């Protein structure tokens, strides 16, 4: 991706996350970037194209971070807790009005982004379970596909607003508890021991900031 375009997408992403999508006009974007609308339209076709590029760039950057975590070759439990820590950082800075605007004004894009997130989440959870099984940290007798669907569903429905308020979802404690709950449910005795030692030697405040 063109470096100039990437910088534009990052800055616009900050605007959308702060004010939502609907209230940020192309004039606002050009003014914030210090460029003319004519220059802006050299990079995007229209606002819909800009919204699409911004969200897909954000998704791509998050996926790169998850890939970096995976490449550290940690055990499955350490890996999952680090993923949880990163998700906490994403969630606590996320403006839910952005999600509302996307769903209302760009429903096709909303569905596309939603499916991309869900697929990435499903594959990440499944791979972590398979890894944990090989390491003897997770129970070998569980059906990894069923557990993966359950955990994916938990995350998806947390953001649906049916049970949790947006203020609740933004609380790091909810995400951390969800990860610990998940690990305790699938871990072997060896895995529980690894988890307890990890929590004992970890400053939980790191996850809650």
Overview of the structural elements:
- With 209 residues, the protein is mostly helical.
- The chain folds into two domains: 71 residues, Arc Repressor Mutant, subunit A; 136 residues, Tetracycline Repressor, domain 2, CATH 1.10.357.
- 74% of the residues lie in helices and 0% in strands.
- It has eleven helices and no strands.
- Helix 6 packs across helix 7.
- The protein starts with a helix and ends in a 9-residue tail after the last helix.
- The model has no long low-confidence stretch (mean pLDDT 90).
Mean pLDDT over the residues: 90
Question: What string gives the helices and strands in order?
Answer: HHHHHHHHHHH
Q: Which spans have pLDDT < 50 for at least 5 consecutive residues?
A: none
- How many angstroms does the end-to-end distance come to? 32 Å
Q: Quaternary status of these chains?
A: single chain
Q: Structural class given helices, strands, pairing?
A: mainly alpha
Compute the number of structural domains: 2
CATH topology of the largest domain: Tetracycline Repressor, domain 2
Highest-level CATH class of the largest domain:
Mainly Alpha
Helix proportion range: over 70%
Largest sheet: none
Gyration radius, in Å: 19 Å
Instruction: Give the total of beta strands.
Output: 0
Strand content: under 5%
């Amino acid at each position: 991706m063109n470096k100039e375009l990437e910088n534009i997408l990052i800055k616009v992403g900050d605007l959308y996350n702060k004010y939502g999508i609907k209230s940020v006009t192309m004039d606002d974007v050009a003014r914030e970037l210090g460029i003319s609308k004519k220059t802006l339209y050299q990079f995007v076709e229209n606002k819909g194209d800009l919204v699409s590029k911004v969200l897909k760039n954000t998704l791509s950057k998050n996926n790169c971070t998850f890939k970096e975590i995976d490449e550290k070759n940690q055990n499955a439990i350490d890996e999952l807790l680090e993923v949880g820590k990163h998700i906490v950082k994403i969630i606590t800075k996320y403006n839910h009005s952005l999600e509302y605007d996307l769903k209302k004004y760009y429903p096709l894009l909303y569905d596309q982004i939603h499916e991309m997130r869900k697929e990435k989440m499903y594959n990440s959870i499944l791979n972590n379970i398979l890894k944990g099984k090989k390491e003897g940290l997770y129970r070998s007798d569980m059906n990894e596909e069923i557990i993966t669907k359950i955990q994916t569903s938990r995350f998806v429905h947390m953001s649906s607003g049916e049970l949790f308020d947006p203020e609740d979802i933004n609380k790091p404690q909810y995400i951390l508890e969800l990860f610990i709950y998940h690990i305790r449910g699938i871990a072997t005795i060896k895995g529980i021991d690894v988890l307890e030692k990890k929590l004992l030697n970890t400053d939980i405040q790191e996850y809650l900031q």
